[in-house]
TrEMBL record:
InterPro entries: ANXUR1/2-like, Kinase-like_dom_sf, Ser-Thr/Tyr_kinase_cat_dom. This is Serine-threonine/tyrosine-protein kinase catalytic domain-containing protein. Residues 2-101 form the Serine-threonine/tyrosine-protein kinase catalytic domain. GO terms for molecular function: transmembrane receptor protein tyrosine kinase activity.
Length: 151
């Protein structure tokens, strides 16, 4: 849950961005936030942020994913997730800023895979996770846009 909700007792679009950041790190780590100590998203977020800030994110990224992803694509993906988890809502990106960055990361990954056509490409499991993540992002954006247009 968005840590800002504790003090404001209110959800916002930036709360959705925080939750989306948790989802992105779940994809990178290959596990749900609830599978990590206390099943607390804020603990999970702090863990991800501290590893990102210390340059130790590789310690948490799923080994299969790390081996199969383009480094630049992985870095963009991780950076997006990191900024989505900022404690201050004003420091988080708008969801409309997130999608183009994810598309950029995906494009880099596609180029990387294309260069590897003679070798192995992403595993079926990873492709499914990335597809689900992208589909989830698009759904979140449509939901937020629909909420905004109804206000």
């Amino acid at each position: 849950m968005d840590p800002a909700c504790v003090s404001t007792n209110a959800l916002s679009n930036k709360s959705d961005v925080f939750s989306f950041g948790v989802l992105l790190f779940e994809v990178l780590f290959g596990r749900e936030a609830s599978s990590i100590k206390n099943s607390d998203n804020w603990y999970f977020a702090r863990l991800a942020q501290s590893h990102y800030e210390e340059g130790k994110l590789d310690d948490l990224i799923h080994p299969d994913l790390r081996k199969q992803m383009n480094v630049e694509s992985l870095n963009i993906f991780a950076e997006i997730a990191y900024y989505c988890l900022k404690a201050q809502r004003s420091q988080r990106p708008d969801i409309n800023q997130v999608l183009p960055e994810l598309e950029k990361a995906l494009e880099l990954q596609h180029k990387y895979e294309h260069r590897l056509t003679a070798g192995a490409s992403l595993s079926k499991h990873l492709k499914e996770q990335l597809f689900e993540s992208q589909a989830g992002a698009k759904h979140e954006i449509r939901t937020i846009k629909a909420q905004r247009s109804s206000v």
